[in-house]
Amino acid sequence: MSLRAVDLHKYFETAAGRIEILRGLDLEVAAGETLAVLGESGSGKSTLLSLLAGLDAPTRGDVEIDGRSLGAMSEGELAAFRGRELGIVFQQFHLMGGLSALENVALPLELQGTADALTRARDALDQVGLSPRGDHLPARLSGGECQRVAIARAIVVEPALLLADEPSGSLDRRTGDAVNALLFDLVARRGTTLVLVTHSQALAEACDRRLHLEDGRLHAR
């Protein structure tokens, strides 16, 4: 699944003046490509991922996925697209507190009416090493375990496009290495397009290409 961002601007008007986050950013990612976006904290990396996922709208510009404009989609079309084709790993997990780990992972499949949602969710939890914790609510899980649940939820739909915000940032090195290997295995097996935000140079080096977000634009180094 190809991805293209054209002249993306994102800014906010405040009493103190305009705060510019993205300033005419352009990006092209080929189908099946893996791309790492690096940058300082506060440079706009998470904002960029939100725009690429259609979770937020740019002030100006557009995002196209396989040639289809996200800006031209209705909220219902966007939600359906994300459910079918997109996996997102958030830095803050965004798990449903009233659902168990297993139920959180199964949720995107159940929303699509998938008959074997729980079976597939158990398999995804097993892949991230959390099968024994499937019946636990997020409040009973550590931060690292919540991140692994979030990753399992993102991969359970076997997405064509995977967006990941510091996917192993809250994990210990051993677990982080295992989770990163899982993500790249998914990419290799499914031809998944991967865009990830990371501070890890080692993780970035595992990607086909690396770009740096600086002054609201992407730069090759």
Short description:
The chain has about 220 residues and is α/β, with parallel strands linked by helices. The chain contains seven helices and ten strands.
Question: Per the principal axes of the C-alpha atoms, what is the gross shape?
Answer: globular
**Mean of residue pLDDT?**
90
Q: Return Rg in Å.
A: 17 Å
Low-confidence residue ranges: none
CATH class: Alpha Beta
Give the number of DSSP strands. 10
Q: What fold name goes in the CATH topology slot?
A: Rossmann fold
Describe the fold and architecture.
The chain has one domain: P-loop containing nucleotide triphosphate hydrolases (Rossmann fold), CATH 3.40.50. 35% of the residues lie in helices and 28% in strands. It is built from seven helices and ten strands. The protein has helices spanning 45-52, 75-85, 101-111, 117-127, 143-155, 173-190, 201-205, and strands at 3-14, 17-29, 34-38, 60-65, 68-69, 86-89, 161-165, 193-197, 209-214, 217-219. Helix 3 crosses helix 4 (117-127). It is globular and about 50 Å long. The mean pLDDT is 90.
SSE map:
Layout: E1 3-14, E2 17-29, E3 34-38, H1 45-52, E4 60-65, E5 68-69, H2 75-85, E6 86-89, H3 101-111, H4 117-127, H5 143-155, E7 161-165, H6 173-190, E8 193-197, H7 201-205, E9 209-214, E10 217-219
Parallel strand pairs: 3-8, 3-9, 6-7, 7-8
Antiparallel strand pairs: 1-2, 1-4, 4-5, 9-10
